[in-house]
From TrEMBL:
Protein name per UniProt: Sirohydrochlorin ferrochelatase/sirohydrochlorin cobaltochelatase
Keywords for the protein's UniProt record, in alphabetical order: Lyase, Metal-binding
Metal-binding is among the record's keywords: yes
Record InterPro entries: CbiX-like, Sirohydro_Cobaltochel/CbiX
Gene3D superfamilies assigned: 3.40.50.1400
Ranges in coiled-coil conformation: none
SUPFAM superfamilies: Chelatase
Molecular function terms from GO: lyase activity; metal ion binding
Length: 256
């Protein structure tokens, strides 16, 4: 019997883990599978080994490991594969297929537009955007984030869509905020490209408030992507994609 093991990142902030669980519960209802479990890479329980154990104890004879992550970076290419290998040592006769992250997807553009609209933006407004990613040293992840910035600019017809990162890549958020502050538009919207921000929103708000006092253009912080219901369709797609992937042997398969 096939099982699905959803793998989230995990957070020290309990609310973030609960949001991830609620999001996956919505996806479960749209997927035809009797055995579906949730686990986390780090910082929360159950971990991947425990998640696989729960699947097997419920009768799983094969497992689809489906990541609940935005991009393919170190967690996808190294950390999750390593943890899967450890877990598979306990169940050598249970084949595992390892899925893809959300990646570049039109549904995410829909969510970004919703976040902009909720913050007051309308199509045709004279506004520039600053997209804020978590950041990574992985070239592929940075490339995908840049692609999403380009797609958003094409869809919204914004004159400027700049990018910045919270860690591990340049420009930093401070640098991105300084750059976009030279805008001649009537408003600047800051879009956190994150499933869950935890305590980061407070820090972003403080920096934006300080910069707003220096310039005459309103800087508006949008809500993060969040575990939006519109992203459930992507997760369901990834479940179906994973069914056709090769059996995971511990070797990392590049995600292009």
């Amino acid at each position: 019997m096939e099982a699905i093991l959803y793998v989230g990142h995990g957070s020290r902030v309990k609310a973030g883990n609960e949001q991830m669980k609620d999001f996956v519960e919505k996806a479960k209802q749209a997927v035809d599978c009797d055995i579906q479990e949730i686990c986390f890479l780090e910082l929360a329980a159950p971990d991947i080994t425990e998640g696989m154990k729960r699947c097997v104890e419920r009768g799983a004879t094969s497992i689809l490991a489906v990541p609940v992550l935005l991009f393919s970076a170190g967690h996808m290419k190294v950390d999750i594969p390593e943890e899967l290998v450890k877990a598979m040592e306990h169940y050598p006769d249970v084949p595992v297929r390892f899925g893809k992250p959300f990646g570049v997807h039109e549904e995410i553009l829909n969510v970004l537009e919703k976040r902009l609209s909720a913050a007051g933006w309308k199509q045709g407004d004279d506004a520039d955007f600053l997209m804020v990613g978590r950041g990574s040293s992985d070239i592929g992840a940075l490339r995908d984030f840049s692609a999403m910035c380009t797609h958003l600019q094409n869809r919204t017809k914004a004159k400027r869509v700049e990018k910045a990162y919270l860690a591990a890549a340049l420009p930093t958020f401070d640098e991105g905020l300084e750059s976009i502050s030279s805008s001649e538009a009537q408003a600047i919207y800051v879009l956190p490209y994150l499933l869950f921000t935890g305590m980061l929103m407070k820090e972003l708000n403080e920096k934006i408030a300080a910069k707003s006092r220096e310039i005459n253009i309103p800087i508006i912080l949008c809500d993060p992507l969040g575990f939006d219901k519109d992203l459930v369709r992507i997760l369901c797609e990834r479940v179906e994609d994973t069914k056709s992937r090769p059996i995971f042997t511990g070797e990392v398969i590049p995600y292009v």
